[in-house]
Amino acid sequence: MSDILDLKEPLIQTCEELLPKYGINFSFVREKTENTLNSGEQINLLVGLSKGLEGNFVVGMTRKAALYVISGMTGQEEFFTLDNLARNALSEFITILCRKTLSKVDIKKLVSISSPTLITGERICLMISKTPARKTFFKMNDTNFSIAYNVEG
Fold first, then answer.
1. What are 71-125's pLDDT values in tens digits?
2. Is the CB of residue 69 less than 8 Å from the CB of residue 93?
3. Angle value at C-alpha 42, between 37 and 48, nearest 5 degrees
4. What whole-number distance in Å separates Cα of residue 45 and Cα of residue 80?
5. Reported confidence tier of residue 1, pLDDT bands at 50, 70, 90
6. Strand stretches in the chain, DSSP E
7. N or C: more exposed end of the chain, with fewer CB within 10 A?
8. Which residues pair with 139 in a beta bridge?
């Protein structure tokens, strides 16, 4: 595999544009290199990229962070389960996040983004591959979320 694209700044810029629209306060915490593309959160969203770029994004968030996103996107204050409306809001969120982030990178070809896969549960450790990845960590209101990626151009 070739080098992983550095998406730290495009991700931060995208969060700066996107999250306040949904009434979500956030701050960038750090980015680090990982040995695998992984997440250990309660709510995980996976998106695959192909054609112009190859790779994956995994957004991992606490249940509380997911509820902030769902409420912000739907305008509804309370969710107790991940019903279809909530799942669709999370899927739309990661799709918008990926598209906006990739729009900030000089790409010569059209990139195909897969439909998001939602993976939930307690004590989950999601590991997509044993290839190196980068992981950005954010604070969201009073909780956390992360975006792990391995994207090659």
1. 999 988 776 678 899 999 999 999 999 999 999 988 877 889 999 999 998 888 8
2. yes
3. 35
4. 19
5. very low
6. 26-34, 37-39, 43-51, 54-61, 111-113, 117-120, 126-129, 133-140, 143-152
7. N
8. 27, 144
Conformation bin of residue 13: beta by default, left when phi > 0, alpha when psi is -120 to 50: alpha
Q: Which one-letter amino acid corresponds to residue 85?
A: L
113-137: string of b/e by CB count within 10 Å (b at 16+)? beebebbeeeeeebebeeeebbbbb
Residue type, 148: A
Q: Which amino acid is at 20?
A: P
Ordered domains of the chain (ranges, CATH): 8-152 (3.40.1550.10)
Q: How many CA atoms lie within 13 A of 8 on its CB side?
A: 12
Residue 16: burial class (beta carbons within 10 Å; 0-12, 13-18, 19+): exposed
Q: Which residue has the tokens 């960038």?
A: 28
CA dist 70 and 66 (Å) reads 6
DSSP string, 46-57: EEEEEETSEEEE
Q: Which two tokens stand for residue 105?
A: 């990178």
